[in-house]
Amino acid sequence: MFLWLLLLMLSPVGIWSDWLSIDMPRYAYEGDQVVVRCSGEENNKIKRLMYYKDGSRISTYYSTSSYVISNARPSDSGSYYCKADRKFFLFVDVTEETRSTWLTVQELFPAPVMTARPLLPTEGNSVTLSCDTQLPSDRSKTQLQYSFFRDGHTLRTKWSSSEFWISALWKEDSGYYWCEAMTSSHSVSKRSHRSYIHVQRIPVSGVFMETQPQEGQAIEGKMLVFVCSVVEGTGEISFSWHREDTRECLGRKTVRSQRSELEIPVIRESHAGGYYCTADNNHGLIQSEIVNITVRIPVSHPLLTISVPGNQIFIGDMVELHCEDKRASPPVLYSFYHENISIGNISVPSGGGVSFNLSLTAEHNGNYFCEANNGLVAQRSEMVALNITEPPVKIRLMNGLHRCEGRVEVEKNGHWGTVCDDGWDMNEVTVVCRELGCGAAKHTPAGMLYPPVAKEDQPVFIQVAMCNGTEDTLAECEQVETFDCGHDEDAGAVCEGG
């Protein structure tokens, strides 16, 4: 027995035996937890347990314990085995060794490849970044998260989709882009190579200017909007608006748009003329064609005037009604009204006022106004009153020795009548002689001195004529209509002429 023990103690140390065994997987994926477990037939006899990889000790335990690779990497691939110092007999220890087991740690997924669609984006357009990698079929359900970067700045982090859509890129967004794919447990993370994305700028072209209202038809007092646009052009575009004759700059705007507006809040007649706009995105300034602005002036306050032949207006007179708005843009439609009833319309195609002639009757007495309308607005003039008097009476001297002597008779409404001699004196005779063109007044005889006496049915038109002697006609003198006068009181007159 002693001899056998001695032989055992003298035998080589470290030869593997079945007393100590190793348990571990042959294959794993990076990021996995790998447990290497060594155990003996009697673990309580193990005094020291040592783990080896590729011949190098990697861990030592003074009791039974497993070696754990918490986050496996391909570099963890290799040959693993264990050694154990165990108590053999009394004070005698022996070393046991396991067989070697090979571990292969496989790549969970390759480093992603980042691509951009389109490859050469233009300013203002969208771009889709893709972070592409491939999981093995037996790990296809592993959840990956994706992050995207540009020049050290994070664009999107821990994104569940491998695609990232950027709504619009601009010239200054050019730079190096890359992505990262990571397991949700953060155990495996890999980045793509950096890719340079060059965002292209398209020079402006097709600069065009239009107006609101359209076709440059501005209205005085209203707003005018200049709209400058380009057919092509990306990035920040600087728009400016100019007046053609003075080259005056009306305004500038820089926007990330192919269209910009400039408002002129209140248009004046002086704004009429040619205008243009320019656009530039640092590739050269482009000018639009000239747009001519016509300022139409609305009707404001038309003026109605009535021209009459004398100081008094009589039935049968011809009067002229003239309506005009001196500033309104043509064409203008003028309408004439008598007591809100239309009496005529006249259109003026090229400016200026318009006249309307009216032969007066008794019904034409009253208020008049005119209306002007040039399609922008209609306005009425102030009211003008037209007061029509009875027509002037005609006068004659009857039954005298000549036409400048006799009984005084006047005509009214086609009928002849006499004049009462109440208050009749040389002032009245002077006016009668002047009206008849018979020279100076001489006498104021009674009418009965010139028989035959007026017929009984012939009217007496004037009871009292109150002249001051300066009037041109008897009709201009103040008069009192008849109330108690007969033909025995008819007035007469004698003038110098004969």
From TrEMBL:
GO cellular component, one term: external side of plasma membrane
Domain SRCR: 395-496
PROSITE patterns in UniProt: IG_LIKE (PS50835), SRCR_1 (PS00420), SRCR_2 (PS50287)
Superkingdom in the source lineage: Eukaryota
Main location: membrane
Keyword flag Repressor: no
Record-given protein name: Fc receptor-like protein 2 isoform X1
SS bond list: C467-C477
One BP term from GO: cell surface receptor signaling pathway
Domain Ig-like: 12-104, 110-189, 203-292, 302-389
Gene3D superfamilies given in the database record: Immunoglobulins, SRCR-like domain
Pfam families reported for this sequence: ig, Ig_2, SRCR
Subcellular location per the Swiss-Prot or TrEMBL entry: Cell membrane
